[in-house]
Amino acid sequence: MRDSDSILSQAEAVLHGNDRGLYTIPAHGLYPHQWLWDSCFIALGWRHLAIERAKIEILSLLRGQWKNGMVPHMVFTSGSAYKRDRNIWRSWVSPFAPEDVTTSGITQPPMLAEAIVQLGEKMDLLDRRGWYRQVFPALLAFHEWLSAERDPHGEGLTLQIHPWETGLDNTPPWMAELHEHLLPWWIRALQKTGTEKLTGMFRRDTRFVPKAQRFSNVDALALYDTQRRLRRKAYDINRILDHSLFAIEDLTFNSILVRANENFLQIAKSIRADVPPELLKRVELTRASLEDLWDPFTEQYYSRDFTTHRLLKTPSIATLMPLYAGTISKERAALLVKSIENEHIFGPAYPVPSAPLNSAWFDPIRYWQGPTWFNTNWLIADGLRRYGYHDHAEALVEGSLELVRSGKFNEYYNPLSGEPLGAQNFSWTAAITRDWLRSHKEKHPDAKR
Ligand code: 2M8
Predict the structure, then answer these.
(1) Which ligand 1 atom lies nearest to the CA of residue 37?
(2) Distance CA 26, CA 30 (A)
(3) Active-site residue (options: 165, 169, 249, 363)
């Protein structure tokens, strides 16, 4: 067993190892660019080490912001080595893309406002207001874009157009939809003849991580096919929706948005900035509309099809995200907590699994279909505290820290055995470890952890 000081310094070494000056890559090899929600979680780690560096992490993310307000899910590293990656996205096909950097053409869960507030907590009042003023225009533009472009019917919930926008890539509810309704004929044909296996030769990811720990070849083809269709429509939401491509009101994304809106309003209030009345109305509506995702029969929340409003009743880690939103009733929160306490659902030896154990999709080593991830644990622990479940939150943090005591800061872990999986020296695992240990020390200076 290593003590917390050595874990802290190992986590710091991971962050320094992945630091590219302006931003921190998630991991060597597999993830050589900047990602939206990664940088937000990574900034939580940097804020305890060097607040100026933490600010740079967020500001460099904003270099990628589109003229219409979208904060893209990836900002690409420059240089000829990554030409192929930039070419997959070709952000320049959109008139809204920035000129100085190339980016992806979709977004990711809006963790920006949370990161901005968490950094602000490390500053004195004057600096905090200066920081909020500096980032407010970009944050306002992002929230206005989310509301106008991603909630075209004014329903309060935003729609997502690619599984990558949820951050949970091959998560069961999205993959179930894809397999049942949206798999193009040519991928079905490859699948039928077993020839999709050949495409494995062109996959870059499986050069870094064993195949069984990543998405399947069929899923890889489908993810890239969907991405290519979005590119063909120049990432123009009207053209995309006209062709009824994937459009889902994702539970994780919208739960994070509810909380992001609260943080956004807190920032605005603190600097006495005006928030357009239309946006204020939308914020209220979003909070109320999250309840439309509740299913009284199975007593849980789900994502929803944007067009038909059908609930996509496949449980996943998203099921627990309304705890982080913080706006659901105590009674509903209690039902969610029960599923975390249940060792056959979300409560195995190393919680919280990205798919419940009693799901047909559950696979303890396959990416977002079973393994335990640090960022979702950070969100759930935060939500548990908000509802007064302090012991549950502590246990979750302790259980997660147990996973890194071996000194391995992996991308994800087997929830049954604790085995480290995915990419090694993964930035948000290290950053969140630092955040938990440091925040705990600040609150309890004499504690052993
Ligand atoms: C994973 O997603 C990327 C695509 O965005 C990938 O599969 O290559 C997800 O785990 C996502 O949540 C994360 O932000 C990203 C970088 O760590 O990797």
Answers:
(1) 14
(2) 8
(3) 169
